[in-house]
C-alpha cells in the first residue's frame, strides 16, 4: 500500500504570546501518533506558513520531525509517523532552492500547490510541477485547491503530471466528482480527500485517504471511520461519519484554522492564538463547536477492528 493512505493531520502551528509554542507542538505530535493517524503534514495551509518567517518554518519542521521520531513508540506499529512538508510559492526557481534544502531532511514527501495569484496556463502548471519534481528527491503530493490559488489543475494536467515517477498523490480540493473518480480509476495517483466533508464519499469511491484539518479534534474517530471502511464495514463507517459531519461542517464556517484552534484551546491543548491577518473564531462559533464536540463524544463508540 502507498504511504499516502489513511488519515493525515495537517498540523496547526500553536502560538503563545506571539511566538511559536514548540512545547504545545510536540504535545500535538504525540497526541496524533497515539491516535493512530497515518501521517502529518507540516507547514500546510492549516499551519499558517505565510505567517511564519523562514527561520520559524525551519524550526517548526525540525520540531515536528524530532518529536515524530521520539514518539514512535506510541504508534501502533512502533514506527515514526511520516511527515510531509508543504512548499508554496509562485516563483519556480525559488521553490527549487527550497526543495533542495528539504531533500536533506527525513521527509516522506512534499506537498505543492499550483502557483497562486498569477494564474498560469495549464501548460505552465505542468512545466512548473515537472521542474519541482525533478528537483525533489522525495515523493510529491500535488495540492489542487483552486479557491486559494486561483487556478485549477485540470484532469488532463493531473494525468500528465502522473507520468513523473516522483509525483505520487494528490490532495483533492477541487470539488469535481468527475475528476476525483477519473483519478481513482486511473490509479497512478493516490487520491487524498482535501475537503473534509468529502472524506466519506472519496473513500467509498476508492480514494486512499484524507488530509483533514478537522481530524485535529477527534482523531481517533476519523481513524476508526477509515479502518471501518477499509475493512468493508460500510454501515459502521457511515455511522461514524454521520456523527462527525456536523462538527466537520462547523469547523469551516469561519476561516481555517481559527475554528480548529479555538476547539483545541477549549480542550486545553493550545492557546487560542493566530497571527494577523487571521483572527480568532467568534464566541458564537466557539460555543457551537464545543456543543457539537460534546455531542459527538457522547455517540456510542464502535469496537475497533484490526485491519
TrEMBL record:
GO MF entry, a single one: 4-hydroxy-tetrahydrodipicolinate synthase activity
Pathway: Amino-acid biosynthesis; L-lysine biosynthesis via DAP pathway; (S)-tetrahydrodipicolinate from L-aspartate: step 3/4
Keyword tags: Amino-acid biosynthesis, Cytoplasm, Diaminopimelate biosynthesis, Lyase, Lysine biosynthesis, Schiff base
Alphabetized CDD domains for the sequence: DHDPS
Catalytic function, reaction form: L-aspartate 4-semialdehyde + pyruvate = (2S,4S)-4-hydroxy-2,3,4,5-tetrahydrodipicolinate + H2O + H(+)
SMART domains: DHDPS
Zinc in keyword set: no
GO cellular component: cytosol
Active site, UniProt feature: 143 (proton donor/acceptor), 171 (schiff-base intermediate with substrate)
Signal peptide range in chain numbering: none
Site (Part of a proton relay during catalysis): 45, 117
Cellular compartments annotated: Cytoplasm
Binding site for pyruvate: 46, 211
Pfam annotation, one family: DHDPS
InterPro entries (UniProt xref): Aldolase_TIM, DapA, DapA-like, Schiff_base-form_aldolases_AS
Function of the protein: Catalyzes the condensation of (S)-aspartate-beta-semialdehyde [(S)-ASA] and pyruvate to 4-hydroxy-tetrahydrodipicolinate (HTPA).
Protein name per its UniProtKB record: 4-hydroxy-tetrahydrodipicolinate synthase
Lineage of source species: Bacteria, Pseudomonadati, Pseudomonadota, Betaproteobacteria, Burkholderiales
Primary gene name: dapA
Amino acid at each position: 500500500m502507498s504511504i499516502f493512505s489513511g488519515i493525515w493531520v495537517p498540523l496547526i502551528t500553536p502560538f503563545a504570546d506571539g511566538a511559536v509554542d514548540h512545547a504545545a507542538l510536540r504535545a500535538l505530535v504525540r497526541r496524533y501518533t497515539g491516535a493512530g493517524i497515518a501521517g502529518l503534514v507540516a507547514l500546510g495551509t492549516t499551519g499558517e506558513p505565510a505567517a511564519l518567517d523562514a527561520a520559524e518554518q525551519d524550526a517548526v519542521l525540525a520540531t515536528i520531525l524530532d518529536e515524530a521520531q521520539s514518539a514512535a513508540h506510541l504508534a501502533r506499529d512502533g514506527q515514526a509517523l511520516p511527515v510531509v512538508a508543504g512548499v508554496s510559492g509562485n516563483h519556480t526557481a525559488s521553490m527549487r532552492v527550497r526543495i533542495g534544502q528539504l531533500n536533506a531532511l527525513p521527509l516522506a514527501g512534499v506537498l505543492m500547490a499550483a502557483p497562486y495569484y498569477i494564474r498560469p496556463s495549464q501548460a505552465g502548471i505542468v512545466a512548473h510541477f515537472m521542474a519541482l519534481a525533478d528537483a525533489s528527491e522525495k515523493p510529491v503530493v500535488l495540492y489542487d485547491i483552486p479557491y486559494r490559488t486561483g487556478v485549477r489543475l485540470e484532469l488532463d494536467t493531473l494525468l500528465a503530471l502522473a507520468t513523473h515517477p516522483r509525483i505520487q498523490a494528490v490532495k483533492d480540493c477541487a470539488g469535481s466528482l468527475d475528476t476525483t473518480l477519473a483519478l481513482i480509476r486511473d490509479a497512478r495517483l493516490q487520491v487524498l480527500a482535501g475537503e473534509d466533508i468529502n472524506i466519506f464519499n472519496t473513500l467509498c469511491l476508492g480514494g486512499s485517504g484524507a488530509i483533514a484539518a478537522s481530524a485535529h479534534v477527534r482523531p481517533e474517530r476519523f481513524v476508526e471511520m477509515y479502518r471501518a471502511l477499509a475493512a468493508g464495514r460500510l454501515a459502521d463507517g457511515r455511522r461514524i461519519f454521520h456523527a462527525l459531519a456536523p462538527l466537520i461542517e462547523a469547523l469551516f464556517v469561519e476561516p481555517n484554522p481559527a475554528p480548529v484552534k479555538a476547539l483545541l484551546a477549549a480542550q486545553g491543548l493550545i492557546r487560542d492564538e493566530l497571527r494577523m491577518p487571521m483572527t480568532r473564531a467568534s464566541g458564537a462559533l466557539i460555543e457551537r463547536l464545543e456543543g457539537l464536540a460534546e455531542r459527538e463524544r457522547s455517540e456510542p463508540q464502535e469496537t475497533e477492528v484490526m485491519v
